[in-house]
Amino acid sequence: MLVTRGDLDPERLAGTLTTRRLGRPYLFLASCGSTNDEVAARAAAGAPEGLLLAADQQTRGRGRRGRAWHSPAGENLCFSLLLRPALAAEQVAPLALAAGSALARALEGLGLGFRPLLKWPNDVLLDGVEGPRKVAGILAEMASQRGQVRHLVLGVGINVNSREFAADLAGQATSLALVGGKSLDRLSVLTSFLAAFEPLYQEFVAHGPGAALELWRRFARFGQPCRIELDGDDCDGIAEGVDETGALLVRTGGGTLLPIHAGDVSWSMSRAVL
What we know:
Elements: H1 10-16, E1 26-29, H2 35-44, E2 52-55, E3 77-83, H3 92-108, E4 116-119, E5 123-128, E6 131-145, E7 148-158, H4 176-180, H5 186-207, H6 210-219, E8 224-230, E9 233-242, E10 248-252, E11 257-260, E12 264-267
Parallel strand pairs: 1-2
Antiparallel strand pairs: 2-3, 3-7, 4-5, 5-6, 6-7, 8-9, 8-12, 9-10, 10-11
Helix pairs in contact: 3-5, 3-6
């Protein structure tokens, strides 16, 4: 059973929101091209930090490197959050990891036995009977000036109630409903994320990325072979961690510990190690 579109109604959110700033104000659209684009336009017009915009359906949703994000009406959760942190532009990468940390914590806290796994840099997976599959992705898009963040749009897509996926995603994606065994109220997932992310975000801005990255490491899995697909070059090695800049630390065959700041990671997927 699909959850009705009314589960994202602004009046319902107002009655359940526990945050002080994030999600205030809140806008809901029945359909849009991209929630990130909608929030970016409002950011340029002076919208305040904390603005949250969710859509029942995206027609041009995207992930990293312009990849399409499947966003059918009435099933899943796609939203974007406007942040205006007083940070240098290079600090945005670990802030995106902080959002992944908060989402993993929020899913774990839903009480349905979810085992979230974080895959660098922006994927959240759930470990099910067929092994880990992607359930959510995060896309951070920044505007900066003179090396400082002017605003950051944090886009989140979560497969909540999908039961079927397109052929090219069928072996890679899952949903909360498929793993948890029942449909979920999308608003409860949204408010759980906001409640988990706000204190991490405040801690990050005030004291740096240490606490957020420590939480990210808790949900990540290291010590496994991986291949990093860089522009025009590939790198094989063992993922050993992330550093304070948000870079993935990969031990190459020659023993060098290499920080990877951008690229696609291919993992040896198994239930034992991710």
